[in-house]
C-alpha cells in the first residue's frame, strides 16, 4: 500500500504586509520623535526608499534620524522608551525585508523567534534606560555618578549570562531537547 504525502503550510503573511508594517513603524516613529521638519522629511524619504529597495539599508538611516530626533527633542522617559521600541522594530523588520523578496510569504510561526528576540532586547534596553533615567536629576543633568556605571554593570551581567547560556550544549539548554 502506498501512502500519499502532502505538505500543508500554516498561515502565512505576504512580505508586502511586512514591508507596510516596517513603513508604518518608521513613519510613526518619525512623526512622534523627530521635531525638526527637515529631518522628518529626510527620514520619510529614507523610509520609502527602505521599503522599495531594502538593499539600500535606508532603514538604518531612519534609525539614525530617529536617534537624532530623540537627542534634539525634550528629554522625557516615554520618548526614550518609545525610541527603543521603534529602533528595535525597525532593525528586526528591516533585516527580514533584506532576507526575503517582495513576492515571498512568511509563515506566522517564523515570527516566534523574531518576537522572542524583540522581547529580550526590550527587556534589557528598557531596564538600562530606566536605570539611567533614575540617575538623572535636576541638580546633576549629566546623571548621577552611579547611573552610568550601574547601567554598564547591568549590561555586562546580561551579556555574560547570554555568553554562558550559548556555550552550553543544546541538550542542556532549558526548554530544548536533542532529537
Write the layout of secondary structure elements.
Elements: E1 12-14, H1 15-33, H2 37-52, H3 58-72, H4 77-99, E2 105-107, H5 111-134, H6 147-167
Antiparallel strand pairs: 1-2
Account of the protein in words:
With 179 residues, this protein is mainly alpha-helical. Helix content is 66%, strand content 3%. The chain contains six helices and two strands. A two-stranded antiparallel ribbon has the order 1-2. Helix 1 runs parallel beside helix 3. The two termini are 29 Å apart.
* Mean pLDDT figure: 84
Strand arrangement, largest sheet? Answer: 1-2
Helix content, binned percent: 55-70%
The major sheet is characterized as: 2 strands, antiparallel
Q: If you compute it from the alpha carbons, what radius of gyration comes out, rounded to the nearest whole angstrom?
A: 20 Å
- Strand percentage lies at under 5%
The end-to-end distance, rounded to whole angstroms, is 29 Å
Amino acid at each position: 500500500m502506498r501512502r500519499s504525502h502532502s505538505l500543508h503550510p500554516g498561515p502565512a503573511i505576504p512580505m508586502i504586509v511586512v514591508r507596510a508594517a516596517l513603513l508604518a513603524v518608521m513613519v510613526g516613529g518619525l512623526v512622534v520623535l523627530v521635531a525638526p521638519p527637515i529631518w522628518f522629511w529626510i527620514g520619510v524619504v529614507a523610509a520609502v526608499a527602505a521599503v522599495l529597495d531594502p538593499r539600500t539599508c535606508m532603514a538604518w538611516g531612519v534609525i539614525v534620524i530617529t536617534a537624532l530626533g530623540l537627542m534634539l527633542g525634550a528629554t522625557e522617559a516615554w520618548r526614550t522608551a518609545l525610541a527603543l521600541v521603534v529602533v528595535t522594530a525597525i532593525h528586526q523588520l528591516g533585516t527580514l525585508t533584506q532576507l526575503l523578496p517582495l513576492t515571498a510569504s512568511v509563515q506566522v510561526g517564523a515570527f516566534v523567534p523574531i518576537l522572542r528576540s524583540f522581547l529580550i532586547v526590550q527587556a534589557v534596553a528598557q531596564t538600562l534606560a530606566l536605570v539611567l533615567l533614575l540617575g538623572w536629576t535636576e541638580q546633576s543633568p549629566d546623571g548621577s555618578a552611579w547611573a552610568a556605571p550601574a547601567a554598564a554593570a547591568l549590561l555586562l551581567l546580561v551579556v555574560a549570562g547570554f555568553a554562558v547560556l550559548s556555550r552550553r550544549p543544546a541538550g542542556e539548554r532549558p526548554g530544548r531537547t536533542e532529537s
